Amino acid sequence: MSVHKSDVKKITTHQLQNMKERGEKISMLTAYDYSMATILDAAGVDVLLVGDSASNVMAGHETTLPITLDQMIYHASSVIRGVNRAFVVVDLPFGSYQGNSSEALRSTIRIMKESGGHGVKLEGGAEIKESIIRILSAGVPVMGHLGLTPQSIYKFGTYTVRAKEDAEAQKLIEDALLLQELGCFAIVLEKIPSELAKRVAEKLQIPIIGIGAGPHVDGQVLVVHDMLGINKEFKPRFLRRYADLHSIMTDAVKNYVQDVKSKDFPNEKEAY
Ligand code: KIV
């Protein structure tokens, strides 16, 4: 028996699969808190990713490595409280699944129980096969993540485009096929050549979501702070800015400071 909180038709992995089959592109954005999640969900985003990019955009770290499982659970549970329709995927943070498959399952169960998330995302291919099998066997939907995998930044050395060489491209295709065979419901491809992403999306039956992977995939994901222009400095070629919230927020705050200093705020109508 289930208890329904609203009549809104919720997005499921089954619906995402149908979207790929009928050629409807999937929209996905990151979210880390309740207020933003309510806006993104009401605006119709299909999938919200509680990304470990929270380590960068929320906590100000240089990489995604420092964020902890407890912190991810805090962000995910805040997002879940703001969502009626979207499917919410939560990143397993660095160090919470690489050790062994039991640890991966333990971390996943904590995320599912303590945050109410709908599925998890893990970075990597064949090397995390056992963990994926274990998580899927517990009935938790798994999203894969290949190409530029930021948790391995110290192995790569840079955030430049991955899989430009044949050997890495071939390994990526094999990993994508393996993730599908294991039962992943979708895969994120990050920062790889458009033609390679196209080949993967055509070869696989499950949805392929791109970030910096060109237009020929089944959906797109962006970090919400980047697409809203809250971060001014981050300007990769793949990013389209849909707003300049940095300027809008800066102007609003400057006006507030000025109004307080000049005693214009609050006025009589704004007082009891
Ligand atoms: O953590 C994140 O924001 C991500 C996206 C870049 C896909 O994994």
Automatic annotation (TrEMBL):
Pathway it works in: Cofactor biosynthesis; (R)-pantothenate biosynthesis; (R)-pantoate from 3-methyl-2-oxobutanoate: step 1/2
Molecular function via GO: 3-methyl-2-oxobutanoate hydroxymethyltransferase activity
Coiled-coil parts of chain: none
Lineage top rank: taxon: Bacteria
Residues of the active site: 190
Gene3D superfamilies hit by this protein: Phosphoenolpyruvate-binding domains
Compartment(s) of residence: Cytoplasm
Catalysed conversion reaction: (6R)-5,10-methylene-5,6,7,8-tetrahydrofolate + 3-methyl-2-oxobutanoate + H2O = 2-dehydropantoate + (6S)-5,6,7,8-tetrahydrofolate
NCBIfam families: panB, PRK00311.1
Role this protein plays: Catalyzes the reversible reaction in which hydroxymethyl group from 5,10-methylenetetrahydrofolate is transferred onto alpha-ketoisovalerate to form ketopantoate.
Name the UniProt record assigns to this protein: 3-methyl-2-oxobutanoate hydroxymethyltransferase
Gene that encodes the chain: panB
